[in-house]
Amino acid sequence: MPRSASRYGLRFVALGYLLVVLIAPLAMVFWRAFDKGGDHLWQSLSDPNTVHAFKLTLIIAAIAVPLNTIFGIICGLAIVRQRFPGAGIVNAIVDLPLAISPVVVGLSLFLLFGRTGWFGPWFQHHGIQMLFALPSMVIATIFVSLPFVAREVVPTLREIGDEQEQAARTLGAGAWTTFWRITLPAIRWAVIYGVVLTTARCLGEYGAVAVVSGHIEGQTETATLRVQDAYENFDLPGAYGISLVLAVISVLVLVAMTLLKPKESSP
Amino acid sequence: MRRSSRRPSEGAQAALSLGFTTAYLSAIVILPIAALVWASRADGVGSFWEVASSPEAVAALKLSLGAALVVAAVNALLGTITAWVLVRDEFHGKQFVNALIDLPFALPTIVAGLTLLALYGPSSPVGISIAFTRTAIVAALLFVTLPFVVRTVQPVLLELDRETEEAARSLGAGELRVFRSIILPNILPGILSGVALAFARAVGEIGALVLISGNLPFKTEVASVFVFNHIQSGDQAGAAAVAVVMLLISFGILLAIGGVRFLATRHERA
Amino acid sequence: MSIQVRNISKRFGDFQALDDVSVEVEGGSLTALLGPSGSGKSTLLRIIAGLEWPDGGDILLAGEDATTVAPQQRGVGFVFQHYAAFKHMTVRDNIAFGLKVRKRPRDEIRARVAELLALVQLEGFGDRYPAQLSGGQRQRMALARALAPEPKVLLLDEPFGALDARVRAELRRWLRRLHDETHTTTVFVTHDQEEAMEVADNVVVMNRGRVEQAATPADLYDAPANEFVMSFVGHATRLGGSWVRPHDLEVVLDADESTREALVERVVNLGFEVRAELVSGEDERFNVQLSRDEADRLELERGQIVFVRLVRETVFG
To answer: Does A5 touch chain B (CB under 8 A)?
Structure first.
C-alpha cells in the first residue's frame, strides 16, 4: 500500500536536507585541499609545526581515551550494579560535559589553575606548569570526552542484567575473575563503541583546549588549533591540508561507528 | 524486613568503585565548574550582574539563544522527517545515508567551520556568500546539531507497535489522523530530548563558529565567542559572567531533558 | 454481513502464505479459522480486514467487492493477539477512538463508552492506562474498542493466545455469549482446536495456505475429510493402516478373534475420565479413553495385559 506521493516527497526532503547540510561541506574539504596540487599539500603537511601539532593531538588522545575508558567502565558498574542513593546525580554529572560549552570548560580550568586560581599557586610553587602546557590541555580533553564510554556501558549493563555474574559467583568465581571473565566480555562492544566516540571527540576538540593552551606554535598547538591558526595567517592550503587529514580520520571513525553501533538503534 | 544482603567483599567493591568515580568526577568536572561559579561572584553579585547585563554580553546571549531556537525548530521538523525516512522507507544506499548522519559527531568542528566557509563564503563555488552573517551561524549550527533529533527519534520509531497503527486504521482513522493521534504522541518525548540536546549544543558551540561568524560584536558575536574573546583580552570577569549564564542554561536544559523523560513514562507507572 | 473469500492468494517473498483459498462466512455466524502456525489463517484474516492486500482473488463483504477498499472504510472491527492498546491514552479514550474519528457528538460517545465498559466489565477502569491493566483486562478493552463503532464484522486474531489458561477459558465463553446477543458476524483465528470446537458455529481448517475442510465442529470430528483434519481436530492414532479415536477402542479382559493384545504402560487419571496408554506388538503406541467406572471395572493398572477391540475406524483413500 505505497502512498507514493507523500513517500517520495518525504524522501526528497530528507535526502535534500542531508545533501546540503552534510555532503556538500565534506566534498569541499577534499576539493580545496588539492586546490594547489598534491605536492603543495604534502609540503604544508610536513611543516614541522604541523607535524608537532598532529603528534600533540595524538599524545593527548593517548592519555585521555584510556583514562576515560577506565572511568566509564567503573562508573557504569557503580551506577548500575551498586544501588546507592545519588546514582541519579552521578549519572547527571556524567552527562554534564555534553551540555556545557567547551569555552566554559576552558575558562573553568583557566580559573582553577591560573595565577589567582584555587590550585594555581600550588602548582606554580611545585614548578609544574598547568596552563599553556600539556597538563591543562589533557584535563580539558578528558572533561569534554568524559561521558561517552559510560553512556554506552550503562544501558548495556542494564540490559544484560547480572544473572551471568550471579551464575559465575555460584560457580566459585571471585570478584576480579567475574569482572574480567564475565562482565567485561559482555560489555566489550559497548566499550569499543564508546572508545571510538571518545577518540573522535578528543581528536576534534577545539574550544576548551584553545582557551587553556595559548596556541603557542610548535608547543601547545593541537591539529585543530593549527587549522585555525593557518587560516588566520592566510595559509589556506595549510588549513585545508590539515582539515583533509582530520576529515579522512573522521570518515574512518564514521566507518568504525557504523560497524560497531549497538544493534537496537540501527534501522 | 530487609537485611543488607551485601557480603563484606561486595561492600568493599562498592566503596572502591564509588570512591573512584566520585574522585574522578570531582577532579575533572565538579572542581572546575565550582571554580568558575566562585570566580564569577568574586567581586560580589552586583558586579557579576553588571557584566552579565552589559549591552555586548546581552546581545551575544540573545544571538546564541535565538540561533539555537531556530536550529532547534528546524531540527525538530527535518530531523524527525529524516528519522522517519530512515526507518520506514527503503531505498538503495539507505545504510550509507544512515551512517552519514553521524558525520558531525566524527568531524572536528573547526573543520566543519572551515568547509562551510569555503562553501558559503566569499569564494563560494555555488555563489552563495553568507559568511560573517547570522545566516552563516545558523548554517554552521545546523551542521553540528544534525544528528541529535535524528538519533533520538530513530529508536523510538523502531520500537513503535505497528499494530496500534493498524488498529487505528481499522477504527476508521486516515493516515494523517494515525500520525497525529497514534505516532506523534509516542515519538514526542524522543523529539523533545533530541531538541534539548541540539539546543544545548547550539548554545555552546565554538569550533564551527570561530571562523565563519566573523565575531562582530552586536552583530554576529555569539556568547561562546564573547567568552573566548574576553579571555584572550584578559577580561576574565566578563568572560566568567557570561560563562556562568551559559552554564545555567546548560543545567536548565539537562533538567528539561530529565523532566521530559519523567513525563514520557508517566503512563507506564502503575 | 456475509463474507465471501474467492480464490485468494498471497505470497511473502518465496513463501506462499495463501494458495487459492475460498471461504464462505454466513452473515451473523461465528466462524473459526483453525490451523497450525504458518497455515495462513492470520494472513487471511488480515486480508479480510484490509490490513494486507492479496496478490490474487477477491473479497466480498455483504455481496460487494471490497478487495481494494481501505481498512478505514470496511466497517470491520479488529482485535489483535497482543492487544495493540493505545498506551498513551486512557481506557476510556481507547474505546472512544473509533467514535471520535467518526466525529460523533460528545454525549453519544460518553454514553456508548459507558455502555461498553459495562459490557466488558471494566467499569471503574475508564481513567486508567493500559499499562495498569492485566492482560485479560487489556484484551477486554480492545474488544470494547473494536465494538464501539458498531462494526458489521468482528475479526479477532488469536485474541486469547497471550493470556493464561483460566482467563482464556473465561473470555472464550464470554465471546460466545456476546455473539449470541449481538449476532455480529465474527471470525476468529486460533491454533487451539479445543477453542475452535467450543466457541464456533463453523470451523475452517487450514494448513500450509490451503483450506483442508470447512464444516461444523461435529462434522469435522465425525467426518474428517483427510488425515490432517482427523489428527489435528481431536486425538487420533494410527493403528495398522487406519485412524482410530481414543474412545473408538474397547478394552476387555478376554481375547477373541476381533481383539489384539496390548500392554498397559501408564494409567492417567484425568479426574472425570481415565486415559490408558497402551503398547501393542512392536512399539505400536496408542491411547484409549475410558470412563472412571469402566477403568475401575477392569482394575486397570500398569503392566497389565489387556485386549482391545476396534469399535470404529477411519481410512482415507
So the answer is: no
